[in-house]
Design brief:
This protein is mainly α and 159 residues long. It is built from nine helices and no strands. It is elongated and about 55 Å long. The N terminus and C terminus are likely disordered.
């Protein structure tokens, strides 16, 4: 009997592959049921994968990728991209003093949304640094400007 592993709330690894599969499926206009049948798995299993509740075996992931007209290499590249974005966001969030709970929630956003957020925060940091906010020895000046001078709506909109 297999033991079901429950995802941790702060486990971005568990939620990366599933949302990538879901995004590819939706981009192609394929229903969950159709993809599940083509991949030879149940719709409920595919749903759990897409929601990050279970991690598929390589065999299942290969069949899903094939049904999407992709391959494991492309899904792996998406995984590596998500990992890089998550690392960058974690560093940005920590430097901004965002709590662990809020970080976990933000890292639960889709890969595309996390990438947009990372890009917006990077541009914001660059803008603050260009305005001289990084003049403090420890970057505290930039930090204070970054956390107080720009409304969150501007960050979310990417300016």
């Amino acid at each position: 009997m297999r033991t079901r592993i429950q995802p941790r709330a702060n486990s971005p690894v568990r939620q990366r592959v599933g949302p990538t599969v879901k995004a590819l499926r939706q981009e192609q206009g394929i229903s969950l049921n159709v993809l599940a049948v083509e991949a030879g798995i149940s719709p409920s299993h595919l749903s759990r994968i897409e929601r990050g509740l279970t991690v598929p075996s390589y065999d299942v992931l290969d069949r899903i990728a094939d049904a999407l007209g992709s391959d494991l290499g492309a899904l792996r590249a998406d995984e590596e991209s998500a990992r890089a974005v998550d690392g960058e966001l974690a560093a940005l969030f920590t430097s901004l003093g965002i709590t662990d709970g809020a970080q976990a929630e933000l890292l639960g956003l889709s890969h595309q949304t996390r990438a947009v957020l990372a890009s917006a925060l990077r541009r914001l940091q660059d803008r603050v640094a260009a305005q001289g906010g990084a003049g403090a020895p420890d970057g505290a000046g930039a930090q204070a400007q970054l956390t107080t001078a720009v409304p969150l709506g501007q960050v979310a909109q990417g300016f």
